[in-house]
Design brief:
This protein is 31% helix and 30% strand. By secondary structure, it is an alpha+beta fold. It has one domain: GTP cyclohydrolase I, C-terminal domain/NADPH-dependent 7-cyano-7-deazaguanine reductase, N-terminal domain (GTP Cyclohydrolase I, domain 2). The protein has a four-stranded antiparallel beta sheet, covered by helices on one side.
Length: 118
């Protein structure tokens, strides 16, 4: 299976359990690897036949900002479902990190895999 990926996408959004977190924007770092047949796009050099990583990057930020949640786990699950449905992605691996959330840790977060590898 071919893969299209976005690594280190920095987004600002509202996320967190505590009241003070609900009143500010925080940085999340998103990595997503999406299973896709890139040969179809490569055959005639057609963007329309692949996953547009610029468009998907914007969609990730938009989705996170329009769907505030308390937990990164919830955001990861909902975002994965949204991307799979919207772009007809058969499989993806999604990692969301929250830098600075834990003292002395560079980042904390979750990594999930959804769909099936063909």
């Amino acid at each position: 299976m071919d893969k299209v990926f976005i690594k280190g996408l920095s987004i600002q959004t509202t996320i967190g359990f505590y009241q003070w977190e609900k009143e500010i924007k925080q940085t999340l770092i998103v990595d997503v690897v999406m299973g896709w047949d890139t040969a179809k796009a490569a055959e005639n050099d057609e963007l329309a036949k692949t996953l547009d990583y610029a468009e998907i990057s914007e969609e990730i930020a938009r989705f996170a900002n329009e769907n505030p949640v308390d937990l990164i786990e919830t955001l990861a699950e909902r975002l994965a479902q949204h991307l799979i449905a919207s772009y007809k992605i058969p499989w993806l691996n999604l990692k969301i990190g929250k830098p600075g959330a834990v003292h002395n840790a560079a980042t904390v977060g979750v990594e999930i895999e959804r769909g099936s590898k063909i």
